[in-house]
Amino acid sequence: MACCVLQITGLIFGGVGMVGTLAATAMPQWRVSAYVDGNIVVFETIWEGLWMDCISQLGIRLQCKFYDSVLALPPPLEAFRALMCIAVGLSIVAFLMAIVGVKYTQHSKEGLRAVSIFILAAGVAFLLTGTLVLIPVSWTGGSIVRDFYDPQVPVPLKRELGAALFVGWGSAALLLAAGAMYC
């Protein structure tokens, strides 16, 4: 009974982590403009994401523009895109393997070895996915903090942590927890 509860909990954590990974990949709020000066009148908010930049003017008008060329992107951004896309695909595969493993664990008593292989493979895939999500999210967060406190970076170029980073950290934690439960 405890095994089934653990498997269902891992399935829920993995499913929420999968959706969070997809959301963090698609969200444009990876880097958000920071206002450090004493100016309290703010007309524009700038969001920078993996796929596009957005500008919100007075919270009324939102304009987003996809990046023009993949070749013009900085190499870290290209790598982060690739890692997050691989993580999305791998999280879907891990979630499907977990569903198969949980379904056949409850219905099959004779083929426990085959079922345990599905559960173990789902656990390893969830752990790998959590690690793949954690790398670009933490790297981006670290570079934002480093640039924010660097006096050499001009004030208009300073950024704050965006909502997509927090979604990414949460989904990575859920995916790692699901992987630990299945392993």
From TrEMBL:
UniProt keyword annotations, A-Z: Cell junction, Cell membrane, Membrane, Tight junction, Transmembrane, Transmembrane helix
Protein name: Claudin
Organism this protein belongs to: Regulus satrapa
GO cellular component term of the entry, any: plasma membrane
Function: Claudins function as major constituents of the tight junction complexes that regulate the permeability of epithelia.
Pfam families in UniProt: PMP22_Claudin
Domain of life, source organism: Eukaryota
Origin organism lineage: Eukaryota, Metazoa, Chordata, Craniata, Vertebrata
Family: Belongs to the claudin family.
